[in-house]
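Morning. Coffee machine broken again, so started the prediction first thing and wrote up yesterday's gels while waiting. Chain of 201 residues, entered below exactly as on the submission form.
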Amino acid sequence: MLMPTLEQRVRIMLHHAWDLRDAGSDNKAIIEKLRTEGVPPHIADEVPKLIDDATAKLIHDASARQTIVDQVTAAIEEEDYEALQATMIQGVDDERTLHKVYCELEKQLLSDSHSQGTIAAFGLSFLLGLGDWPLIQALSHPDWNVRFRAAFALGKMGKHASNALPSLRELNNDSDEYVKEVAKEAIAAIEKAMKPWWKFW
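Came back before lunch.
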């Protein structure tokens, strides 16, 4: 079974804990919920402090966060790549805003509209190492359009998508020729970006 890396698991867990906090859970309830979901007790006990430490650095209030998420959604619906990138730049310095944007992009990635799903994939690729996990998961989606857009976006991430290489290589046996081709191109782009710039042999 495909598993996220340790760094990805920590980020997913923190975002989950933030959602629990937003829903009204106190520290005790968050710790208890994480423990019941299999998080080791010594890690679960530290999560509220990690949230509090990050919260002190936030620059957006709830309404400002929602405005950015709404702008991201509008840019996707209008298929406006420049507007999406400009809006995301406003949110990447704030972990809570980034999480909300991330969730919206993850949802839109699986859109029935190929053009909207593609711009969402572009948005996730803009997050570099932060947006790879939804794209990696999408590589096994039953819709070839979703697999295609995910592979293409991972290739755009270069070395930041190195975790995706095993899953991309599995697409060598994909039933769709377009998916096979874009996966090969993504692998080549990632491997090229991973080579030290100073190595010429």
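The mean pLDDT is 85. Going to sketch it on the whiteboard this afternoon.
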